[in-house]
Amino acid sequence: MKIIVLVKQVPDSEANIRINADNNDIETAGIKFVMNPYDEYAMEEALRIKEKNPDTEITALTLGGPGAQDVLRNCLALGAAKVVHIKLNTEKPDSNAAAHILSRAIERLGAGLILAGKQAIDDGAFTTPGAISTMLNMPFVASAIKIELNPEAEKAVVYREIEGSTEVIECALPAVISAEKGLNQPRYASLMGIMQAKKKPIEELTLAELNIDFANVGTEQCSVPTNLNKTSILKLAYPPQRKQGEILEGEISEVVCKLVEKLKEAKVL
């Protein structure tokens, strides 16, 4: 079986995020970028499937600028057999455009299972895996906490949490499944794996090779729907600063009375 794992480079959750001068993106200078945490669960699940089925071939797929190759090197260090980088320059795709581009690459590469994180922590859109499944006409199950594969029957049984219970879904393969926290415990790359990954090749694809050309949208050179980007960021703003907290002092009985009055003023009581 061939498994494609979709991975994305995102800012470290502990990074100090600053808005750029145009107020339409974050300032990337000095920011540490890492693999999207939910994609780590998808990658780990692919590795576990391979451990049970040694003939499994894992391909990690990403799109982005040169920095995106760091994520792919990590995938190689973990155990991916192949990594593919769809090169982007200045054009930044939204979820819809990313889904179009990635689905074209998946068609080119071929796979019996596509794994992805349930969301990317930078935009939190939750939409790309589902959109890819629609474009490829494949079943889609989101937020998996357990996956049981039956490659011979070309079926998968996926478990996912719903409010107060667990939902069990059977779907045909090939399929797109997104990973939820709790699906597994992602491993760290070994030192040997990291060293070997530095020597392994990264396959590169361009939008032109996928027959996608942002510069020629609407012409015969572009066979995808026009206006791939369906959304745009108009403005980013910092959340309003919270008011400084007030410390109530005095005896316990006095503090309780003051607190009750404050809660009444705030219309909590």
Describe this structure in words.
This protein has six helices and eleven strands. It has helices at 37-52, 69-78, 95-109, 128-136, 191-197, 252-265, and strands at residues 2-6, 9-11, 33-35, 57-64, 82-87, 113-117, 140-150, 155-162, 165-172, 175-179, 203-205. A nine-stranded mixed beta sheet has the order 9-8-7-10-6-1-4-5-11, with helices on both faces. Strands 2-3 form a two-stranded antiparallel ribbon. The radius of gyration is 23 Å and the shape is globular. Strand 7 and strand 8 form a beta hairpin. Helix 3 crosses helix 4. The protein has one domain: Rossmann fold (3-Layer(aba) Sandwich). With 269 residues, it is an alpha/beta fold. The chain starts with a strand and ends with a helix.
List the helices and strands and how they pair.
Blueprint: E1 2-6, E2 9-11, E3 33-35, H1 37-52, E4 57-64, H2 69-78, E5 82-87, H3 95-109, E6 113-117, H4 128-136, E7 140-150, E8 155-162, E9 165-172, E10 175-179, H5 191-197, E11 203-205, H6 252-265
Parallel strand pairs: 1-4, 1-6, 4-5, 5-11, 6-10, 7-10
Antiparallel strand pairs: 2-3, 7-8, 8-9
Helix pairs in contact: 2-5, 3-4
